[in-house]
Design goal:
Blueprint: E1 2-4, E2 8-10, H1 23-38, E3 43-46, E4 51-59, E5 62-70, E6 78-82, E7 85-93, E8 99-101, H2 107-118, E9 122-129, E10 132-137, H3 138-146, E11 152-154, H4 155-161, E12 163-165, E13 167-168, E14 172-173, H5 176-182
Parallel strand pairs: 7-9
Antiparallel strand pairs: 1-2, 3-6, 4-5, 6-7, 8-11, 9-10, 10-12, 13-14
Length: about 190
Amino acid sequence: MLNYPNKIKKDYKKNINYGNRGMDLENMINEANEYYLEKNMALIYKKPTPIGIVKVSYDNNKQKIKDAYFATQSTLDYNGLYKGKYVEFDAKNTESKTSFPISNVHLHQIKHIRRVIEHGGIVFLIIRIKGLIFLLNGPDFISFIDNTDRKSIPFDYIKEKGYLLEYNYIKGLDYLKYVDLIGGLNNEKN
């Protein structure tokens, strides 16, 4: 309710679009990936969602998808190479102030995280919780799942095991220094 001069009262309802909650996080990661590419530090890209097209229309010489479906289940959002190692990760947001719901990571994604670990790749989640952004190493995520019956990861676990990421106006969301740590790449030349 807003109170205007002359005792006029109007209801004010803010329209909130929750559809793009993750875009800010993705934009910060994309900025970092562009920076890493420009500086020849890493090749990390956002993977496109696999879509099968059923119907297309043509409007002013432009193709427009009218009907489509998800061709296959996607794995994680980002993948690439860093210091000769395969890297894959996903970006996740939660509105919860106390924990990260494990259901935010689909079963096929958990299976994929396990496979990347088994094959010696570096895999992790970037999680925004309580307005903070953490990198949680894949093995720590899997260990939590394997050793508890909880349906969510407590904020304290993420704070203890994860790495707090900071946004930099030049680098974006700089996460590579922590990839060095979790991937055992500290002593290798850049």
